[in-house]
Design a protein that fits this description.
alpha/beta; single chain; 7-stranded mixed beta sheet; 4-stranded mixed beta sheet
Length: 293
């Protein structure tokens, strides 16, 4: 059975309790019945967590509150029993249009954009440090910070016809080194130069061709495909998944320490109960039941 929680910024546990009981100290009826227009919606289905970007009427544009809430979902206390995550957007047209352009004065806008950049960095770090992988399911267009958020995930699926873009050069911005690095890691320097220095939008089909997107599918099949992948991950031994994910990241970022990191996880895996369960299940030709121990 799924446990659905609509999260109004950072009041995760409180609002969930309020919905179940109808009342909790410090939460008004308005909090429960009228969620903020910019929010993260969470659904847990067994060991799979799905997080949906929602910004009503704003193409799921990212706000500071949304990024704060998103990062909190990846904290250890919020992820007990979670073995895989999916990040998607609400509706059929937009994954996320990035930072909201707004109408504030340029000086105020610049400061807000800096805070959004910091929020993106915090979310990316939280996704990376989580013990499980996150799949981005691009249900529509992904622009600017929205696309960077997808790049922080372990891999990406996209619906056919979605458009992607990184427009900082068209705005007069120099993008952060860490944001650029995410693209270089996945598609190399030349492709990253083309995307950022032209600022042109491109189709998801092109993103698939250059390796920015792993799989291209219809909108109807997008979340089912993401859920099948997440379920496959969740059925595996958690320590094995975590260990290989960490080692692969180390190979990518700091290859000279990859052998040492691999050895640390291998020692833990060889001493784990799950290794015995996996071997016994394979011998008996049955599905293993991994405990994470």
């Amino acid at each position: 059975m799924s446990d659905t929680r609509t999260v109004n910024c950072h009041r995760v546990r409180t609002l969930a309790n309020a919905r179940r009981t109808g009342y909790i100290s410090g939460v008004s009826a308005a909090d429960v019945s009228a969620p903020a227009p910019d929010r993260i919606e969470r659904t847990d289905d067994g060991a799979v967590m799905t997080l949906t970007l929602v910004h009503d009427g704003k193409a799921n544009a990212l706000t500071e509150n949304m990024l704060t809430s998103l990062a909190k979902h990846f904290q250890a206390e919020e992820c007990v029993g979670i073995r895989a995550a999916i990040l998607t957007g609400s509706g059929e047209r937009h994954f996320s249009s990035g930072a909201e352009m707004g109408t504030d004065a340029i000086a105020s806008w610049v400061e807000r954009i800096k805070r959004i950049e910091q929020g993106l960095a915090t979310v990316a770090t939280a996704i990376q440090k989580a013990s499980f992988p996150t799949i981005a399911a691009l249900n529509g267009d992904a622009v600017g910070g929205g696309l960077e958020l997808a790049m922080a995930c372990d891999w990406r699926l996209a619906r056919e016809g979605a458009r992607l873009a990184m427009p900082p050069a068209r705005l007069g911005l120099v993008y952060t080194a860490e944001g650029l690095r995410r693209f270089v890691r996945e598609i190399g320097l030349a492709r990253t130069r083309e995307i950022f220095l032209t600022g042109r939008a491109f189709e998801a089909s092109h993103a698939h061709q250059v390796g920015l997107v792993n799989h291209l599918t219809s909108l109807d099949e997008l979340l089912p495909m993401a859920n099948r992948m997440a379920a496959a991950i969740a059925s595996n031994a958690p320590l094995a998944v975590e260990g290989m994910r960490v080692v692969l990241r180390t190979i990518q970022d700091d290859d000279q320490h990859a052998d040492a990191r691999a050895q640390q996880y291998r020692v833990r895996a060889f001493g784990s109960k799950d290794l015995g369960e996996g071997v016994q299940a394979a011998r008996a030709r049955r599905t293993p039941k991994f405990s994470g121990e």
